[in-house]
């Protein structure tokens, strides 16, 4: 594949079907490379999860897909979605503001959920609106691990209804000033997305094609009733964009709507607008006969998988990723581990280099003493000179002992670094250290440490840990400041600490 050609795979794991789409971008053209669909057998309820991921593995092998890296989505009742309005927020304070909003909006501690946010009306200069999405962290980790078991990886987990809206925005032309709605009808649940002027509102409800097929007319009434309640609730929210409208002026259908008889007529009769079916491939370059194996009537079921595959190829209306925070934590952990290993290697190199230097110096001196002994045999008559050289040898031996003591003191640093690393907070890492130790028994050394942390609290915790350790005394912070990390754009605390080191010698 040419370097200018990008490939992206969207995987939509539904309750009845698994849909896969591979898109490729060359220049400004995005083309459909591969698509596949598999029905999940109804007799897999006992071990459904395992069967689903085995089917995903089969999709890759049967369609000869070499790149096993996908974008996936989650939806339904497991996802928590909130919309917030932001007043006059500066760009550099936006991340901090959204974290504050998330703490207020999400009914769980942030360390228990995977969450992300996205601005809705980015082009507006005044007040902004944003969407916050969250899901229990264990659900995200479960998806990642199960994909890993079948040798498939993912760096992006989206929300199904958001991927649906992104697919609509890419493929369908619609009036931004006109209130519209897209209805995604699945097997077990349905997603309703209402949109206008770049703003959206989302609701999922557990009535879909299975219930309609099972209950007939009653199921259809329940389904229509849920749509009416959703729209009514949307209008109860109140917004300056509503402008007196009471029903959507445009209704777009996707998902399993093709299998439901008279669905279009019933919706048109109830809401006074004729629905149209979303074509998720409308603005894609599609080879001829691409749908010959699956049939044109079900191609609109690929809307979510197309929206997922588009994420790596072009900027989209809404971009959220439940793995964003987890990936950032992984990068920080790798960076911290690299700094720690580098510091230990440097300490070992210093110790080895000093030991080699000391032994070389000692060897040179021993060679000189041997020559002096030879000269003593020749010049025994110079007894005063002999005694003088013997005195010189004693002095050299004392110096050698001092050098060995100095070499032994360097070994203390490995123990000191180990003690410091055991009390190092998770959000803090050491970038530089220096110090000296006393050669006297039970003397005090001096250690200066510099590093980076994610917060002042992490620095305070580290100082408290050092003070409580018997290895360190007189622990004093020297300086601290905030700077912006060039790679992540996040605020990092740079600090310096000095302390005495208790040197224990046998």
Give a structural overview.
The protein is α+β, with helices and mostly antiparallel strands and 506 residues long. It folds into 3 domains: 1-78 and 135-172 and 279-322, ATPase, nucleotide binding domain (Nucleotidyltransferase, domain 5), CATH 3.30.420.40; 173-277, Nucleotidyltransferase, domain 5; 331-502, Gyrase A, domain 2 (2-Layer Sandwich), CATH 3.30.1360.100. The chain contains 11 helices and 17 strands. The chain has helices at residues 48-62, 94-105, 137-149, 160-171, 209-215, 217-237, 263-271, 303-309, 324-378, 383-422, 456-468; strands at residues 5-13, 17-26, 29-39, 69-74, 80-86, 113-119, 128-136, 153-159, 180-185, 190-196, 199-205, 250-255, 276-277, 428-436, 444-453, 472-484, 491-502. A hairpin with a 3-residue loop joins strand 1 (5-13) and strand 2 (17-26). Helix 5 (209-215) packs across helix 6 (217-237). The two termini are 66 Å apart. The model has no long low-confidence stretch (mean pLDDT 82).
Topology at a glance:
Blueprint: E1 5-13, E2 17-26, E3 29-39, H1 48-62, E4 69-74, E5 80-86, H2 94-105, E6 113-119, E7 128-136, H3 137-149, E8 153-159, H4 160-171, E9 180-185, E10 190-196, E11 199-205, H5 209-215, H6 217-237, E12 250-255, H7 263-271, E13 276-277, H8 303-309, H9 324-378, H10 383-422, E14 428-436, E15 444-453, H11 456-468, E16 472-484, E17 491-502
Parallel strand pairs: 1-4, 4-8, 9-12, 12-13
Antiparallel strand pairs: 1-2, 2-3, 5-7, 6-7, 9-10, 10-11, 14-15, 15-17, 16-17
């Amino acid at each position: 594949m040419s370097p200018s050609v990008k490939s992206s795979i969207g995987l939509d794991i539904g309750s009845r079907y698994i849909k896969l789409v591979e898109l490729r971008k060359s220049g400004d053209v995005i083309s459909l490379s591969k698509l596949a669909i598999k029905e999940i057998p109804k007799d897999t309820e006992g071990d459904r999860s395992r069967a689903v991921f085995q089917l995903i593995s089969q999709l890759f092998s049967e369609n000869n897909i070499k790149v096993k890296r996908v974008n996936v989505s989650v939806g339904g009742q497991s996802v928590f979605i909130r919309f917030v309005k932001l007043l006059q927020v500066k760009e550099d304070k936006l991340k901090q503001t959204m974290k504050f909003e998330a703490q207020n909006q999400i009914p769980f501690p942030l360390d228990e959920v995977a969450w992300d946010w996205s601005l809705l009306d980015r082009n507006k200069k005044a007040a902004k609106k944003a969407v916050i999405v969250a899901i229990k962290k264990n659900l995200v980790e479960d998806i990642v691990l199960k994909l890993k078991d079948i040798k498939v990886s993912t760096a992006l987990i989206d929300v199904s209804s958001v991927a649906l809206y992104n697919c609509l925005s890419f493929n369908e032309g619609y009036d931004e000033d006109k209130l519209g709605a897209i209805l995604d009808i699945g097997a077990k649940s349905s997603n309703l997305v209402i949109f206008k002027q770049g703003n959206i509102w989302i609701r999922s409800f557990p009535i879909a094609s299975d219930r309609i097929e099972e209950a007939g007319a009653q199921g259809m009434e329940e389904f229509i009733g849920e749509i009416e309640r959703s729209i009514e609730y949307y209008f109860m929210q109140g917004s300056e964009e509503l402008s007196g409208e009471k029903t959507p002026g445009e209704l777009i259908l996707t998902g399993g709507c093709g299998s439901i008889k008279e669905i279009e007529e019933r919706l048109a009769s109830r809401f006074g607008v004729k629905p149209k079916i979303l074509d998720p491939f409308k603005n894609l370059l599609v080879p001829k006969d691409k749908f010959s194996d699956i049939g044109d009537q079900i191609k609109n079921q690929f809307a979510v998988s197309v929206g997922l595959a588009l994420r790596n190829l072009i900027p989209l209306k809404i971009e959220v990723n439940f793995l964003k925070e987890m990936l950032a934590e992984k990068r920080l952990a790798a960076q911290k581990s690299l700094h720690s290993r580098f510091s230990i290697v440097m300490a070992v190199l210093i110790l080895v280099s000093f030991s080699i230097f000391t032994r070389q110096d000692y060897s040179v001196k021993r060679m000189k003493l041997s020559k002096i002994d030879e000269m003593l045999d020749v010049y025994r008559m110079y007894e005063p000179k002999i005694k003088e050289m013997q005195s010189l040898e004693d002095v050299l031996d004392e110096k050698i002992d001092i050098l060995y003591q100095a070499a032994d003191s360097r070994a203390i640093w490995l123990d000191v670094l180990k003690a410091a690393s055991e009390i190092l907070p998770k959000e803090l890492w050491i970038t530089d250290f220096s110090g000296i130790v006393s050669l006297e028994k039970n003397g005090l050394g001096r250690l200066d440490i510099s590093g980076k942390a994610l917060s002042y609290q992490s620095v305070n915790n580290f100082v408290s840990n050092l003070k409580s350790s018997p290895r360190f005394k007189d622990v004093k912070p020297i300086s601290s400041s905030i700077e912006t990390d060039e790679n992540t754009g996040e605020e990092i605390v740079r600090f310096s600490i000095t302390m005495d080191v208790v040197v224990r010698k046998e």
